[in-house]
Automatic annotation (TrEMBL):
The family this protein is said to belong to: Belongs to the GTP cyclohydrolase I type 2/NIF3 family.
Source organism of the structure: Pseudonocardia sulfidoxydans NBRC 16205
Gene Ontology MF terms: hydrolase activity; metal ion binding
Quaternary data: Homohexamer.
Signal peptide annotation: none
One GO cellular component, as annotated: cytoplasm
Superkingdom, taxonomy of origin: Bacteria
Protein name: GTP cyclohydrolase 1 type 2 homolog
Length: 382
């Protein structure tokens, strides 16, 4: 039996909640973690249509990209639109889970799915998120049973955790030397006598925010009155996490053809696909950002890409972007603007693969093909 708790753990591992913006609301919205999950339904939006679809399919869990309860609420009465949706899910025995800005910044995440949909080979993030700040603690411990005691204490305090591994360390043998003076209470040796002891140098990485706890654990578990240790701040490393992605096409093509490519790779919407730039400009290197992406216009320009694909571009930022690339200035990327929902819909298949892989195929996973983009009519004057 696969439980809701197990499915949530798999989704949290793929889209870590720590990556979510501080204003966001992600994770399990409703549902009993101990309930069995036999079918999961995945959609961009938690709206009446996708809730109906999930319940009609017999889903035990609806996974969406957009949150239902983004801002603080004081109640979820069934006499409100959002409260009514929650009551329908609960009465139907289905949970609701959201992965929003954490899925935007994960690797792979929303923009990786968008890049794949239009045929890009991803190089890395458009706006990289800083990797978690790390320290390294180096301690010198008498070789013997005390080494195991110290190692366990450091591990329990948060050191030595790398990915899916714990108790990670490196140890080298050596000789420690010290001369206890009056007032010292040496564990080994005597006051006034130079002592040499077989010791082991142990090295472990740790999250910087665990520094105080790890040092305290070392001091509490070490047999010496004055343990010798170092704490080093490690350099920031490149990260694949962050908003947007930069990728390349196998072959350069004109902007007009690239716009057709984007339209063919994404579901149709009333909004359609529109581009700003010279139709004959050749496009090879591309930045993408699923969802509203005009905040990353400067990042796309700085990346030196030929085109930037995103959603919800506003008139003035787009106009200023185009203007900034005219005259003697280096050309700025052409802009390709798509519907918000369409830019994020490819993520649904990615999330479905996460659930399938984690459950070994024991859970049936469906992806909604309902167009929940709010715009329903598109017209051009004739």
């Amino acid at each position: 039996m696969t439980t809701l708790r197990e499915v949530v753990a798999a989704l949290d591992a793929a889209y870590p909640p720590r990556l979510a913006a501080d204003w966001d609301a992600v994770g399990l919205v409703c549902g009993d973690p101990d309930d069995e999950v036999r079918r999961v339904h995945i959609a961009v939006d938690p709206v009446a249509e996708t809730v109906d679809e999930a319940l009609a399919a017999g889903a035990d869990l609806l996974v969406t990209h957009h949150p239902l309860l983004l801002r603080g609420v004081h109640g979820v009465g069934a006499d409100t639109p959002k409260g009514a949706l929650l009551h329908r899910l609960i009465r139907g025995g289905a949970g609701l889970f959201t992965a929003h800005t954490n899925a935007d910044s994960a690797s792979p995440g929303v923009s990786d799915a968008l890049a794949a949909a239009i045929g890009l080979t991803v190089e890395g993030p458009l706006q990289a998120a800083p990797a978690p700040a790390l320290d390294k603690i180096i301690a010198f411990v008498p070789t013997g049973p005390e080494l195991t005691t110290v190692h366990e204490a450091l591990s329990d305090a948060g050191a030595g955790h790398i990915g899916d591994y714990s108790h990670c360390s490196f140890a080298t043998a050596g000789t420690g030397q010290f001369l206890p003076h009056e007032g010292a209470r040496p564990t080994i040796g005597a006051v006034g006598k130079l002592e040499r002891v077989a010791e082991t140098r142990i090295e472990m990485v740790l999250p910087r925010h665990r520094r105080a706890a790890v040092v305290a654990a070392l001091l509490a578990s070490h047999p010496y009155e004055e343990p010798a240790y170092d704490v080093l701040e490690l350099a920031e490393l490149p990260s694949q996490l962050g908003l947007g992605r930069i990728g390349t096409l196998d072959t350069a093509e004109p902007l007009s053809a690239f716009t057709d490519r984007v339209a063919a790779g994404l579901p149709a919407t009333a909004w359609g696909v529109r581009a700003a730039g010279d139709p004959d400009r050749m496009v090879r290197r591309v930045a993408v950002c699923g969802g509203a992406g005009d905040s990353a216009l400067d990042a796309a320009a700085a990346a030196g890409v030929d085109a930037y694909v995103t959603a919800d571009l506003r008139h003035h930022p787009a106009s200023e972007h185009v203007l900034a690339g005219t005259g003697p200035r280096p050309p700025r990327p052409a802009l390709v603007d798509v519907a918000h929902w369409a830019s994020e819909w490819p993520w649904c298949a990615q999330a479905a693969d996460v659930v399938r892989a984690a459950t070994g195929g024991s859970v049936d996973v469906g992806v909604s093909r309902l167009r929940t983009d709010p715009w329903t009519i598109g017209r051009n004057p004739t």
